[in-house]
Amino acid sequence: MKVVQFTIPVSRESTIVVQEEKLPHYYPHLHRHREVQIEWVVEGSGILVAGNYMQRFESGDIYIIGANQSHIFKNDESYFNPDEPRQIHSVSIFFDPNYLSQNILSLPEMANIRKFVHGVHNGFQIPEEAREAVQKIMSEIIQYKESQRVAAFIKLLYQFSTTRDLKPLATSNSEQVISEVEGIRMDRIFQYLVTNYKRHISLAEISEIANLTPQAFCRYFKKHTDKTFVSFLNEVRINEACKIILSGKFDSFSDICYQTGFDHVTNFNRVFKKTTGMSPGEYQKGFRDI
């Protein structure tokens, strides 16, 4: 299972590439491309990893992925169950920020938009209050062709540049210089963790998967994620715990604890609160009250 660093074919005759897709699941490997990606998750759920950012994504979410930012929209396990067919529906817009800056964005009237485009290295999540306006413009882009499509795209960039409270994804852009070999290794590590998080994973075990000594693995993992191996694994587990809580399909929080790979309820409660800012009970109550 090799990670593929692919390049979206944005030609000189096409300023942007627009894709609307309905598939069984998202591409399940860590990857990157030189284009900025605007992603509207019309339907789907799972975990988004972008640089050192990790959080659940749900239907309706909209993200901006930076150019060359390693990322993966990893769908929930149920999307890979042939006995439980599901699908994702997504709208993706890709553009080369360098090509755009040398052409349309070189106009003096585009200064604010140009500044925004130059600042998306680490990616953003669009706040909930701005989603409807963004979804409307993205729907127009799907329908339009040629000059009308480009005009709507500039309108979309203007919307982003004037939107307050954009939520940054990654907190560091150091991983953007990751090599192809390192990308393949990081994908192998990530795939192993999301497949085996329900059981104990020792440092020696994951180091062997990465073909590194434990000491070298700790330095390597921290360098590329800004997180320790344990904190990253705990985030995977807590994201899964949040999904179970929201589904309502559980008997007790202790059941969730053991289902997600924690050995002790006390540790589960402590890590859950550290990660989400709430206890499992508070988290459940918060969503019941919405």
Secondary structure layout:
Blueprint: E1 17-23, E2 36-43, E3 46-50, E4 53-57, E5 62-65, E6 71-75, E7 88-95, H1 97-102, H2 111-118, E8 124-125, H3 131-143, H4 146-161, E9 167-168, H5 180-196, H6 203-209, H7 214-225, H8 229-247, H9 253-259, H10 265-276, H11 280-288
Antiparallel strand pairs: 1-7, 2-5, 2-7, 3-4, 3-6, 5-8, 8-9
Helix pairs in contact: 2-4, 3-4, 6-7
Describe the 3D structure.
This protein is 43% helix and 16% strand. With 290 residues, the chain is an alpha+beta fold. The strands form 2 sheets. It has a 6-stranded antiparallel β-sheet with strand order 1-7-2-5-8-9. Strand 3 and strand 4 form a beta hairpin. Helix 2 crosses helix 4, helix 3 runs antiparallel to helix 4 and helix 6 packs across helix 7. The longest helix has 19 residues. The protein starts with 16 loop residues before the first strand and ends with a helix.
Q: Enumerate the strands of the largest sheet in spatial order, edge to edge or round the barrel.
A: 1-7-2-5-8-9
Given helix and strand content, the structural type is alpha+beta
> Helix amount, in percent?
40-55%
Largest β sheet strand count, sense and barrel closure: 6 strands, antiparallel
Enumerate how many helices there are, as a single number.
Answer: 11
Per the principal axes of the C-alpha atoms, what is the gross shape? globular
Distance between the termini: 41 Å
Q: How is the quaternary structure best described?
A: single chain
Write the element-wise H/E pattern from the N-terminal end onward: EEEEEEEHHEHHEHHHHHHH
**Low-pLDDT residue spans:** none
Taking all Cα atoms into account, the compactness measure Rg is 20 Å
Residue-averaged pLDDT: 90
